[in-house]
Write a structure and sequence with these properties.
Rossmann fold, two-stranded antiparallel ribbon, 34% helix
Length: 238
């Protein structure tokens, strides 16, 4: 059964044209902020969740009907979201940019955007995840919850990625493989380099799309969930 995305009781005041879409009955509504690639959004949609990407840019993914082209703070206020996942721009906040941006106004803008997005999401949602590569943001939003790498999720590469989690358990590795190449660091210059470097790896996107919503629907505590290994999680919830 499918109905309109936002009914009149949930739609909030906005200057934007009302957004209408289709929803999957009795499934969580999930906002994936700063995601033009729709890497996580498409995995969530594949699993039947009411997921919507959000970015100021047009999406490059295959589901433009589920893309909110708007400011993240407008999107957060559109409805009551069951989970919010954030991928704030990291160009100016990543540690690898210290050489160029350590005293730049752009870094201050990047910090404020990331901090505000995290704080606003946490104010209105019980389940929030924020992802950044190695970054200066621990000084501004607290110590990271978890560190992950692509090689833990089926990709033989390294890219140290930090997660901040509210109400969610640690993301469990799904397929640890050989290979520790830092392919992203070696990526040659191109007009799409920034987009390509920031796109979520498919294995990580699939793990997020399976594990986080499954936990929310499980009624387990974080401690109970984290006592399970990935084989048990797959057996119970897949």
């Amino acid at each position: 059964m499918q109905t309109n995305l936002f009914d009149s009781t949930e739609r909030q005041t906005t200057t934007e044209t009302p957004i209408v879409g289709m929803q999957c009955y009795n499934q969580p509504f999930i906002l994936v902020g700063f995601e033009e690639s729709q890497a996580v959004t498409s995995e969530l949609r594949f699993r039947g969740y009411n997921a919507f990407s959000c970015d100021l840019q047009d999406c490059s993914g295959s589901m433009p009907e589920f893309h909110l082209k708007m400011d993240i703070f407008q999107a957060i206020k559109l409805r009551k979201w069951d989970m919010i996942i954030l991928h704030p721009p990291c160009t100016y906040t990543a540690l690898c940019g210290n050489r160029w941006y350590w005293d730049s106004p752009l870094r201050i803008e990047g910090i404020e955007l990331c901090k505000k997005a995290w704080n606003e999401a946490c104010k209105v949602c019980d389940y929030v995840a924020l992802e950044q590569p190695k970054t200066i943001m621990q000084k501004h939003i607290g110590k990271r919850t978890q560190t992950i790498h692509p090689y833990q999720f089926g990709h033989g590469e390294t890219k140290e990625t930090w997660l901040w989690l509210k109400g969610l358990p640690l993301l469990q590795p799904t397929q640890i493989v050989d290979g520790r190449e830092n392919r992203i660091w070696k990526m040659p210059p191109s007009k799409d380099r920034q987009k390509l470097r920031s796109k979520t790896y498919p294995g990580i996107a699939a793990a997020i799309a399976f594990q986080y919503p499954s936990f929310i629907k499980s009624d387990m505590t974080i401690k109970e969930w984290e006592s399970l290994n990935i084989s048990e999680i797959n057996r119970i919830f897949a």
